[in-house]
Amino acid sequence: MSAADRALERVVREEWGRLVALLLAGFRRLDLVEDALGDAVEAANRTWPADGVPANPAGWLMTAAKRRVIDRLRTEDVAARKQPLLLTDAQRHQEVVRTMADSGSLVEDDVLRLVLMCAHPALAPESAGALSLRLVLGVPTADIARLFLVPEPTMAARITRAKKRIVGAGIPFAVPDASVLPERLDVVAQTAYLAFTAGYSPGTGPDLLRAELSGEAIRLVRVVLGLRPDEPALVALLALMLLQHSRRDARTRDGRLVLLADQDRTRWHHDEVAEATGLLGSRCLSGPVTPLTAAYVLQARIAAEHATVATPEETRWDRVVHLYDLLLQVAPSPGARLARAVAVAEDRGTAVGLAALEGLEVPESHRPAAVRAELLSRAGDTDAARAAYDQAIAACRNDVERAFLLAQRDAL
Amino acid sequence: MKYLVLLIGDGELPPWSEHSEQEQAEVMRRFEAFDAACRDRDGVEILAGEALAGPDHATTIRTRGGSTVLTEGPYAEAVEQMGGFYLVEAPDLDVLVELLRILPPYDMQVSPAVDPY
């Protein structure tokens, strides 16, 4: 890769959201901005290798993209077409339309407007996630499609539809009133976490995890934290994501699933574990927090119990069970009850674990049956274990996990 | 933008007929507070708003194969409880939602009107 390629890749990766935000603030044309920026990147791809990398690469892209937008607007003027405009708070307060800031002075607030617009509660969560990755981070549509396990044209259509809905429903490019900003940032956190888990533990498909794409959701949280450094939900979520992400290289071996207890812990990313435990000690998490933040903190502390011991035998299962008890108070879910049952089995024995599984169902999930099978097998009840494995295998939609369950059943 | 706000269901509130006098007064107070907040807000105006008669008095009109058929009752179960509507001019969805929180916590549907220009 040449110096020009590297410079371009870097500026696209680091400045995409700011460039989109500035163009939107200037032109309010959500339908034009992304294409114009894409064209600018293409032009840079052609000219930088020959002409050299400009002194201000972001400024160069900005100027080129602005020119594209203005060209398009002129063409439209000729055709006398009026396109619906994005609503901005500049318009809301009936201020004079602001002159375009030069890319030398990138306005942080515009990026926050962009994030809040993309992760708006009036958008379907998956659309919000896809749009955030596309507009804030510039993740290619093909990669977003892969993350959410849909064909690329489907994802492209979904993103286009979301952009139209933003304009049509009157979702503003604005930072809302301080009284609702925290709950809007909670929605940003939920959006980022949805995008993260889409890559971390997909329900279907051939890959167990698409770690590099989950990493993009972490980047989204970092961008927002850069703008709102002490936002409790985002700090807690980043800790949780980092802890889960730190195990990515150890979760599979030769395409097969490796359980937590069997993972090679030297392959965990301990720098990320350290960052996460540092985040969990943040002052902003020491006071009263929202239920969403509390749920992230508790899940992160559970993950940290695993991440900070050298061997599985050292795991403090009593503490893990206690944390799950707290989590179930804050955010009861069948998934958390299932995980608690696993921890109970480790801490207090197989029989108590099986009792904790009693009556537990997770809709559309093979996991309760898989856990029951494992515990029955430990208890020596081979027939019942085989039946439970059969049930789990029938319900499992992930190829790697199904292969694992088949191997477990056949080893009974 | 112009938005049609449909007050479509009682949500967690008991039906109006089961409200005590005090509860009815509280609901009325919230409607008045909404009116006042819209008046005070720049760029916001209530263009129309009415309470609607119950589903018993609704008529559904369908045209099929060129003939118009009237049936008794609302169009769909979802709108059976629809109690009223507002037509509101508001700068954007966020401002509108902020103001609608002042109303009693009904289930609502918000549809932007198409700008013909």
From TrEMBL, chain A:
Family membership: Belongs to the sigma-70 factor family. ECF subfamily.
InterPro entries in alphabetical order: DUF6596, RNA_pol_sigma70_r4_t2, RNA_pol_sigma_r2, RNA_pol_sigma_r3/r4-like
Keywords: Sigma factor, Transcription, Transcription regulation
Domain RNA polymerase sigma factor 70 region 4 type: 115-166
Stored PANTHER family: BLL6612 PROTEIN, BLL6612 PROTEIN-RELATED
Gene: rpoE
Protein name listed in UniProt: RNA polymerase subunit sigma-24
Residue ranges of domain DUF6596 in the record: 184-280
Domain of life per record: Bacteria
TrEMBL record, chain B:
Family matches, as SUPFAM superfamilies: Dimeric alpha+beta barrel (SSF54909)
YCII-related domain sequence ranges: 22-106
Matches recorded under InterPro entries: Dimeric_a/b-barrel (IPR011008), YCII (IPR005545)
Superkingdom of the organism of origin: Bacteria
PANTHER family documented for this protein: BLL7171 PROTEIN (PTHR35174:SF3), BLL7171 PROTEIN-RELATED (PTHR35174)
Family: Belongs to the YciI family.
Protein name (record): YCII-related domain-containing protein
Organism: Nocardioides flavus (ex Wang et al. 2016)
Lineage: Bacteria, Bacillati, Actinomycetota, Actinomycetes, Propionibacteriales
